[in-house]
Amino acid sequence: MRNTEAKEQSFRAGQKIILTGWIGLDGMLCVLEKKRGELEQKFAPAFLMQAKARGEERNVCSEEEIEEITDAFVYPVGEGGILAALWYLAKAAGKGISLDLKKFPILQETIEICECYRLNPYQLRSEGCFLIVTDEESRVERLLAEQGIRGTVIGEIANNNDKIIRNGEDIRYIDRPAPDELAKIL
User: Which intervals hold domain PurM-like C-terminal (predicted)?
Assistant: First the structure.
């Protein structure tokens, strides 16, 4: 299903939202490339080599390929990061979303490099990640795994218009998308 068909898609409360890949990985790799000299003064060479090697874990499938694999609604995560993509997904669905922040897959390397520049990794470019909305999360996760694609259930479609992220007992609402965090340093 193409994104332009989102309004024709019948979104229902309880449908699961699966995230593929690692959020912020693409943006972290960009920071690593552009700020290598500065980062070499702050981190051990082994850490930077490991961070660069994480690029091998980036999903190289297209949106169309993910749709073909899963036979589900797929929404790309890109500029503005996961928070922007979730906001746009909820808008396209005409429904709210309820998410668990602790389930968002993020690498320690991304967190540490973002901390150096005071970047929010949840608003950092995440090309190669996709949001998938489905009633059949186990089947979709299995199909993704068969293709070597990491997929994690991070939440579900809600029966209201609230865009909520829970972090333990804390609740926050997703704001309108902000500019990508990369704009702060590049």
Answer: 12-162
SS3 33: helix
1: which DSSP letter? -
Residue 4: per-residue pLDDT: 43
Please give the Cα distance from 19 to 104 (Å, whole number). 8
Residue 9, phi-psi category: left (phi > 0), alpha (psi -120 to 50), beta (remainder): beta
CATH number of the domain at 67, please.
3.90.650.10
Report residue 85 CA to chain centroid gap: 7
Let me know if residue 1 belongs to a domain.
no
Could you write out the DSSP letters of every residue in 63-107?
HHHHHHHH-SEEEEE-TTHHHHHHHHHHHHHTSEEEEEGGGS---
Whether 142 is covered by a domain: the verdict is yes
Q: What is the mean pLDDT of residues 135-163?
A: 95
Total number of domains in the chain: 1
Which long-range contacts does 40-43 make (Cβ < 8 Å, 24+ apart)?
42/116, 43/112
Positions of E strands within the chain: 16-20, 73-77, 96-100, 129-134, 151-158, 163-167, 170-173
pLDDT in tens, 30-40: 999 999 999 99
Domain of 67, in residue numbers: 12-184
Is 3 contained in some domain?
A: no
pLDDT at residue 9, as a whole number:
66
- Residue 54 located in a structural domain: yes
